[in-house]
Sequence to fold (325 residues):
Amino acid sequence: MPINKEAYLRYKIIDACLTNKQHKYPTMDDLIDACEQKLGKSFSISTIQKDIKTMKEDEVLGFIAPIKFSRSNKGYYYADNNYSIRNIPLTESDLEALLAATDLLSTFNGNRVSADFGVAIDKILTSCKEVYDQSVDKRVIVQTEKAPQQRGWNYFDFFFNAAKQNNPTNFIHYNYQKRRFNSIILHPYLLKEFQNRWYIIGYSENHKEVRTFGLDRVMEPYLINKPFYLAPNFNAEKHFKNTYGVYPLAKKIEKIVFDASAGFADYLMAQPIHESQKTEHFYPYGRLQLSLKLIPSQELINFFRMNRNEIIVHEPTWLKTQIEK
Fold:
């Protein structure tokens, strides 16, 4: 069973109190006060007593902490002066889980993130492999898609730091369709990956709204000295929750109805386009009528166009017309 995050934080606070050489034998009140100050909420005596019991006896947790109570000093202490939960070695199952996690982490290296992020990941992977992985013939069992490095990928760190530090930016943007360059002032909020491409989302002063720009179309970005503007009610998770892709064509959610061929219907049932996908009607021989409730996007239109031999869009009419162009 996973460790409760708040409980684990209390264990660390209790451990810090018990290993504090300047204030030995902390009382129950001391432990409660320390937890309340660190976590900003109240705790009962029974909660801390249960924490101490868990730290001492829970074999799954694995601390088996030698916590004792000194009647003469009226406080708690570790019977082993060198003990701390920070010194607990990882179990064999912990090691296996850690190494599996590093395998997954390694899939985000290379062209998936920037050079600085890649260096940090390399350090983590190298440390884990050196300390824990003693196998000689370890084979790769997780492999993700590796896309060619896209243009503009070198600006990942720039926009990451700009968004983190609330720095407005200015850059040249190239519009593929209009084949035109524009100077854009952007207040960056979020870096998002979609189908192996990176995008920067933020408030565009040029468009007076939140916009998305592909990093492959960005040139010569630099920071500008002006107040940062955070659009009211912008929420990254909600912004893309009802969208397939990164370029919404409208602001309201619409019901999109389409037919899928028998073979392609199986694919869509196994891998839905969006979490809102529902089956509206079953036709003979496996063909389905499906629906989506989301904000139409350019990526959705591209998806339908790419699979036009397998999909027929019925509603809304404007989307059907757009796809058939």
